[in-house]
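Subject: Interface between my chains keeps coming out wrong

I've been trying for a while to get a sensible model of this assembly. When I model each chain on its own everything looks fine, but I need the whole thing in one frame so I can look at the contacts. Pasting all components below, labels as-is. Any help appreciated, I'm running out of ideas.
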Amino acid sequence: MSGHRLSVVPRDACDTPLSSLPQARAETEGHSDKEKSILFFLRSPLLRAGLRRSGNEGMRRLTARLKVDALTRIKSLILSSLLLSTAVVAAEQKKSGPPVNANAAIGAKFEQNVADYMKLRQKALSGLSVPKNTETPSKITEFQKQLSDSIRTLRPQAKQGDIFTPEVAGLFQHLVTGAMRSKDGALIRTSFQRAEPLKGGHLEVNAAYPDGLPLQSMPPSLLLNLPRLPKELEYRFVGRELILRDTQSNLIVDVIPDLTMTQKK
Amino acid sequence: MSRRILAIVAVVVLGCGLVSLRPPSQLAAIFAHAPQAVASAPAPVDVKLPLEDKSVRFAVIGDNGTGDTPQYEVAAEMEAYRKVVGYDFVTMMGDNIYGSHKPKDIERKFEAPYKPLLDAGVKFYACLGNHDDSNETLYKPFNMNGQHYYSFKKGDLQFFVLDSNYMDSRQLDWIQNQLSGSTAKWKIAYFHHPLYSDGRFHGPDLDLRKRLMPIFTKYGMNVVLSGHDHVYERFKPEEGIYFFLVGNSGQLRYHNLRQGSNIMAAGFDTDCTFMLVEISGDKLYFQTISRTGQTVDSGLLQRQPKPQTPIQAQEPVH
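Reply #2:
Try treating it as a single job with all components included. I did that and got this:
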């Protein structure tokens, strides 16, 4: 579309009823010589005056054909531009990450891993009573400890990469890079900087998120780019690590150890 | 002997000279936090609110849960004002408990400083800051009912309490649904991270602003309160909405407000504060009080009709 600017013909441009004139005109910039001459001819006062005076049917037909020819050429130009841009986008996608359907499969695998964890968590929760609206803080601490112990017992061999498998970690890197490259990238970066960024220290799977360590807030534009989680789980950054945290048990469920926030060259 | 007297005089003169080199505002900050200030008699309660019949009155605190002396002193002022103003709930802008969250911390950083208020039946409605633990939602005195974000009503007012640490699509959908169904005369949102701030340490969260402002303006949010930057600031209306930042009810960052801001209506960054609000009909009265009982800002805001009208407020005291 570049080089074409469409504008409505002003009503006072000529006396001819608007219905009998082209409703839109294209500036000659970017057209071939043949197109330019057709457009020039269509806009010529002589032609309009001729139409007004004689009402010649043949002339009208010729004009209509020329108009159709010009429009067809413009349409084909637009179509070629679209095809070209689609090809460029596809090539870009091929360069920056796996194809869309491969990503969908990896995303589905991640969702399955999360669902499996949630089943296990539900099992860990059974038999425990959540101290909703307690006035006694020690009951909350006790509940948190019981739940985390129970989850650890049910997944004693849990290790980094169980949920964020290497393919899933790759997908997350792709999604984060995509968000940082998007028009919201600058906002996300500023949001991180202003939230109270945490310097990394490695967090272990099945360990508790350290008591007293603040939580890095997650910029909404980044969260909107990541797969949605059940409300019992959340993503958090600690330095360059993206962690999956169980909010009630305060457990680190999994970690992607080195997720770069900057654009990949 | 005379040499010793001369030496003492010299030390005193030198000390006075050094102190006088500091800018007056810094001196105020030094003396405000000197230990003797704790012992000095508190300023008499000077209520600027009209205390109208059937009005809704509440206090606002933010970034308070340090367990340190300034938090206790602000809490003491809050209690002194409560006795006169009679507010019955407090909105908390997050960072309710800093550092460790063991039971003894909850006691030292919340229950002890606000004991007189809790004993008088004052309710606290908390939101989560970046220093808070998710399980604070289970703690009854915070009235969160296990939710990270929630809503509650008081008379003509509806409050929308958000979790700005984690503004995901679920929460964005929730706030949109809540606001679209709200018939409250006054809609007030509060959450930890500010959409507007002249605090130099953090500043505004622009990504959060991009996501929330279209919803707030679409559904006619009246007032937005937040914390995070450890200062007090009131803003000129932004897209017709009144914004306040109260992030110094326990923490404080001296002289952290950016100078020459064109969005600030009033600011205070040399001591801790809390804010009182009274809403009666279409009028919102506010009064911000420092740790030492000084009124640092007060005024009246008119509920925004369509199109919204500008703020009418008294000159702040700096």
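Reply #3:
Confirming on my end. Residues 44 and 224 of chain B are 30 Å apart (CA to CA).
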